[in-house]
Write a structure and sequence with these properties.
single chain; alpha+beta; four-stranded mixed β-sheet; 5 helices; 4 strands; 12% strand; globular
């Protein structure tokens, strides 16, 4: 499925792990290529529903890159491999997707237990706020 906005990352804004992932990307994305939307935002919920993700119980992140939506481990690897200095992570695409996604699913299903959960979406700093779609 395609989407009109490109290089947009959909993430769970109340998930501590997911929010740290977004900050990790933002600090390494020197060209400010990627933009972010929390699934809890109006735009994020609309995007999630368009891709069949339940905004009330998200089980994946997603990235729209090159006009194509990627999910789970494909999304994470697509983002990482497009960051300066992380192109080497493309080698993980050689691991079969069912195996990569099995590991992804274990982390995703236990992310609140392992990493915690915010009461509300984290508030990005001013530099990052310009890259957030709501």
């Amino acid at each position: 499925m395609s989407w009109s906005d490109d290089d947009v990352i959909l993430y769970d804004g109340v998930c501590v792990f997911c929010s740290r992932w977004i900050r990790f990307i933002a600090t390494r994305d020197r060209d400010k290529r990627f933009r972010f939307t929390a699934i809890q935002s109006k735009y994020g919920a609309r995007l999630a529903r368009a891709f069949g993700i339940d905004p009330m119980d998200p089980d994946t992140n997603a990235v729209i890159h090159g006009g194509v939506a990627f999910f789970k481990s494909d999304a994470a690897l697509t983002v990482l491999s497009n960051l300066p200095g992380y192109q080497w992570t493309r080698v993980f695409f050689a691991v079969p997707a069912p195996l990569r996604n099995a590991i992804y699913n274990v982390v995703a299903q236990n992310r609140y237990k392992i990493f915690g959960k915010y009461d509300a979406c984290f508030v990005p700093d001013a530099d990052m706020r310009a890259r957030v779609l709501e």
